[in-house]
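Run log // design_07
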């Protein structure tokens, strides 16, 4: 049997002796798997001088089903749940039906969005089917369980349920697709409701859900340069850039919070996953980003 563990604590992650890790990246710390480390946001993600693909597109991830462990299966470690992570887990579980040739463009879009942001999706001229699939998945992802910080969770059954739901999205099941259409309409409404203000291209938002893809400024329809978002439900802060800059947002977050466990990647970063923050700190970060972008 394959066991999948999730934790925000790298030391707890190491304790399960994972065979494969999928985006088990904690600030600059990467927990390695004994068989494979599917990490692409940190230096560990570089192999032979080239950047590794996102896990959802990493064909080098070995199948735990094909490794002889006398029926013992194997262990996968993840740090969070998103489309890229699930794609990597599906590869480790040898779920080949999810990677049929007709889904190739979907996974390419998933990797592109993971690296560049949802706001850049339409620059790739995606098919209508793939856009509907993505919206259907994002609707499901918006409702995923938020597991308690600083603890180790066996999420095997939960991930299996999510993978089944993702398969339904890929197969264009009517219920999931219609839910995705409704989700997109709600996202447009969220764009208006979460907006607090914009100054010098830095948009400040506050909501109970993820809003770092909402670069369009309400009413003006202009595109902002940066979003600083405060999640009032989880008391977390995330900052993202509409376009790549010369600095890495993970470095910016560690610098601003003076915390090595804050982190991120080129286009998006956030505070320490084990801490809670105030809206006032988000306001201060918005001011800091204005300075960084000037």
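design_07 sequence
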């Amino acid at each position: 049997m394959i066991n999948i563990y999730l934790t925000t604590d790298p030391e707890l992650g190491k304790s399960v002796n994972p065979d494969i890790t999928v985006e088990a990246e904690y600030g600059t710390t990467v927990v390695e798997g004994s068989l494979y480390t599917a990490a692409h946001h940190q230096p560990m993600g570089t192999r032979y001088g080239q950047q590794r693909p996102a896990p959802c597109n990493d064909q080098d991830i070995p199948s735990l089903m094909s490794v002889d462990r006398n029926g013992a299966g194997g262990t996968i470690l993840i740090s969070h749940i998103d489309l890229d992570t699930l794609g990597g887990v599906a590869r480790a579980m040898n779920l080949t039906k999810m990677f049929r040739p007709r889904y190739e463009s979907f996974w390419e879009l998933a990797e592109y969005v993971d690296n560049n942001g949802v706001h850049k999706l339409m620059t790739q001229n995606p098919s209508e089917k793939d856009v509907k699939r993505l919206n259907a998945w994002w609707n499901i992802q918006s409702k995923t369980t938020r597991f308690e910080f600083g603890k180790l969770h066996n999420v095997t059954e939960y991930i299996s349920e999510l993978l089944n739901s993702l398969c339904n999205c890929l197969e264009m099941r009517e219920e999931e697709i219609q839910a995705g259409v409704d989700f997109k309409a709600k996202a447009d409404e969220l764009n208006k409701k979460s907006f607090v203000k914009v100054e010098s291209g830095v948009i400040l938002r506050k909501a109970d859900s993820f809003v770092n893809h909402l670069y369009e400024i309400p009413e003006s329809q202009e595109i902002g340069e940066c979003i600083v978002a405060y999640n009032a439900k989880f008391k977390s802060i995330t900052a993202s850039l509409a376009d790549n800059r010369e600095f890495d947002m993970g470095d910016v977050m560690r610098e601003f919070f003076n915390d090595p466990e804050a982190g991120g990647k080129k286009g998006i970063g956030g505070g320490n996953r084990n801490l809670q923050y105030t809206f006032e700190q988000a306001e201060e970060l918005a001011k800091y980003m204005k300075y960084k972008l000037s």
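The first strand starts at residue 2 and ends at 6.
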